[in-house]
Amino acid sequence: MNLQLGFTLLLCLVQLTSFAQDLMFKGGHSHNDYHQEYPLQTALENGMVSIEADVFMVGDQLLVGHEKKELKAQNTLENLYLKPLFKEVQQQGDHFQPIILLVDFKADGINTYRLLKKISQPYETMLSVYKDGLIEQRAVTIIISGDRPFEILKKEQHRYAFIDGNLNDLEQDVDAGLTPLLSADWNDYFKWNGVDDISDTELKQLQQFVVQCHQKNIMLRFWGTPGEGEIAIIYWKLLSDAGVDLIGTDNPKEYNDFRKEYKK
């Protein structure tokens, strides 16, 4: 092989390898993060790898809240998350720990997504991007949950957002470039409630879900589990032992303390 040609092919391979990535995170997920006394800040200080924000489209803004009665004009997705995340990324540079921003569309997914694209455009340099079949992971990865405009994102060959799927997607040809995360209600699949030992059957089922997801380079998350307190710690240990990727908490500090002890 011509030396110059060989070098060129090697360079192309290195560039492709550095660009074609899978989105894999493992650690705490700050459930309904906006309910924290200090949204985002508490999660970052306690090493969360994922943050959840529910949004409603109100005029030309995405307001953060679980229900419409909670909404406040100043609590926009941009003010609470996009702007401060952008500032953190600029200040910390390569030292910033990459994070998922899980945006839960509460209604009207199609128009909410259109607005999300408009609002997030000034921050695209920090957002993980999918382009022509390849993923470039950056500081912040937006994953859309709730009323997801699945078909629209599926058709886009250049986008700055991904989809949160469900466990039923494992039965289909799920693509990590579109759906890097599968989430499910724990109580839809398991009867174990943290009391006594989990049955062998349910433990094997949990482990199988983890293996199936990881074979497809997809993350797994369960919701509907206790978010804090002694019972939550029992769940956190089980989920961690099984290899579940994102573990929900309502108390980032408590989960961080657990994680430090768990790693010992």
Automatic annotation (TrEMBL):
<dbReference type="InterPro" id="IPR017946">
    <property type="entry name" value="PLC-like_Pdiesterase_TIM-brl"/>
</dbReference>
<dbReference type="InterPro" id="IPR039559">
    <property type="entry name" value="AIM6_PI-PLC-like_dom"/>
</dbReference>
<dbReference type="InterPro" id="IPR051236">
    <property type="entry name" value="HAT_RTT109-like"/>
</dbReference>
<feature type="signal peptide">
    <location>
        <begin position="1"/>
        <end position="20"/>
    </location>
</feature>
<dbReference type="GO" id="GO:0008081">
    <property type="term" value="F:phosphoric diester hydrolase activity"/>
</dbReference>
<protein>
    <recommendedName>
        <fullName>Altered inheritance of mitochondria protein 6</fullName>
    </recommendedName>
</protein>
<keyword id="KW-0732">Signal</keyword>
<dbReference type="GO" id="GO:0006629">
    <property type="term" value="P:lipid metabolic process"/>
</dbReference>
